[in-house]
Fold:
Amino acid sequence: MQENAIRAELEDVILSAVLFDEAFRLSDKSLSTPLPEAPHCHADYEIFFLLSGELTLRGGKEPITAKAPVTVVVPPLTNHITKTQDLQGYCMYFNLKKDPKVRGSLYEEVSAALQNKICLLPMKEETRFYVTQLEKYSSSHLRETHRHLIYLLFENLFESVTPPKAPQEMPKNQQYINRIDLFLSEHYREKIRLEHLAELLHLCPKQVSRIIYRKYGCSFTERIRDFRMALARTMLTESEQTVEQIALTAGYENPTYFYAQFRKMHGMTPLEYRAKNRKTES
Structure:
């Protein structure tokens, strides 16, 4: 069984999600790993995305039955037995840590909402979209595509369980947000123009800019920059590549420009960031 571990950062939350190629997809007809018959628990959160059918969790005072479409989050160390009926869906494990270097309240809000009880959350259309896209790429091992889809999926999940911090995009534009995010997550390292994206969406460039700004509070160019900088930060801490190599991989043809942008955004040089955040073997 191939394990695919993805790490992402959302505000002050460090998220680690684990997918298993053979067990990610759940189906009553072809479960790759038999579900345990005895009560068991996991050290991490377990999350189920049910597209059809139902799932019953036993172990507490009363069984909990979830009927699709729904997202089910089981907290760590929760004893349970999982039973399914006509199930089609997906499953993964994840854990959350607070980033001590980032100020914010998201970690406390998400932990308070998820850690004390099994949560059943209505599945939004964008959640279904991200999950099915993730499964689409699961066999190709496109790690960066995985990383961004996981980021978008959990960003959506966290929004569902925490108080809104700002007005959200109007529902009529949510379908465009999904397509914009997926397009940028796949092409952010390329030379892409706002006009090209607008043409794909059958919208005018001003409409696309307005949708992005209302959702994220930034411009089209800044959104691409955020994707590129997220990749650069990951490579600085997890690889031995040079700053020049990282700049090119992240989509910057001019390493000097990347260097200046990185310093402006993070208040330090790429090498200073690497030295400060380098992972060390325990």
Q: What stands out?
A: The chain has two domains: 3-161, 169-276. Residues 167-171 have pLDDT under 50 and may be disordered.
